[in-house]
Design goal:
Helix content: 10-25%
Shape: globular
Distance between the termini: 34 Å
Order of helices and strands: EEHEEEEHEHEHEHEEHEHEEEE
Largest sheet: 7 strands, antiparallel
Radius of gyration: 18 Å
Number of strands: 16
Strand order of the largest sheet: 4-3-7-1-2-6-5
Number of helices: 7
Structural class: alpha/beta
């Protein structure tokens, strides 16, 4: 499928919590092809003349049984239009796009995974947790660790879903209303110390300041880490160069060479 435009049927589109929605799309070919960390470029509005004009890049939250789930937050005109799409409608998209998490790498698959999510950063990590759980059959290897950060208890997302996948979930809230009181990066430091950092690998998604701090923590502890970056995208196929980030190998496009990058390659 790659970069070709396709249509998917909207099966459901419901509010999950606050301004967060989950849309479920029927697209067997895209669901079969999708990998954790990839994304779709969705046409938010309905009709031939789209308003807004540009598609919206959204991480794949789950892909199974011919269906793709997208978790998104209504923050502007595009996502507001997307929240108004109804079951039975067709929605145009490009994808799956981008390079996802390299979780099958021999050097990483032997390490215990820690998934670190800030806010809506849970979106691509639930898909990853499911794939990791499917290939980790040895109970002695330990459960997948999931650290979820949010401002308040009410803003914590997907705790139950990660637990249903068999993960060991810990919560961090900025205001201390649930779990660890403080930033999720501080909770990560605590977990790295408790679990023994030589046997761990970190996968993360969240706000840029969080990922920058996480990269420093992982470098300090010599723990390999991959992060899924967010960026404004006009095309999603590498043509507009609007999503470039600085790396040790020069500027790379989040939509093509990313959205997932190894932290040791990024220049913050």
């Amino acid at each position: 499928m790659g970069k070709r435009q396709s249509n998917a049927e909207v099966l459901a589109n419901k509010k999950i919590k606050g301004c967060c929605f989950k849309i479920v799309l029927r697209s067997p070919s895209a669901a079969k092809e999708a990998l954790p960390g990839q994304f779709l470029m969705l046409k938010a509005g309905a009709g031939q003349i789209s308003d807004p004009l540009l598609r919206r890049p959204l991480s794949i939250h789950k892909a199974a049984g011919g269906e793709i789930e997208i978790l998104y937050e209504v923050v502007g005109k595009g996502t507001r239009a997307l929240s108004q799409r109804r079951p039975g409608e067709l929605i145009s998209f490009l994808g799956p796009l981008g390079n996802g998490f390299d979780y099958r790498n021999t050097g990483l698959s032997s390490r215990r995974p820690i998934l670190v999510a800030g806010g809506l950063g849970v979106a691509p990590l639930l898909f990853l947790a499911g794939r990791l759980a499917a290939i980790r059959r040895d109970p002695a290897a330990g459960k997948i660790e999931v650290l979820i950060g949010a401002r308040t208890k009410e803003q914590v997302l997907c705790e139950k879903e990660f637990k249903n996948t068999g993960c060991n979930v810990k919560i961090a809230t900025d205001d201390g209303s649930a779990g660890f009181p403080g930033r999720v990066t501080a909770l990560l430091e605590k977990q790295l110390s408790a679990l023994g950092h030589k046997s761990l690998a970190v996968y993360a998604c969240g706000p840029q300041p969080m990922l920058k701090e996480l990269a420093g923590i992982c470098r300090k502890n010599n723990v390999p880490a991959q992060v899924s970056l967010e960026a404004h995208m006009a095309c999603g196929i590498g043509a507009c160069l609007g999503c470039a980030v600085n790396t040790k190998d020069g500027y790379k496009r989040v939509c093509q060479e990313g959205p997932v990058f190894r932290t040791e390659n990024l220049i913050y």
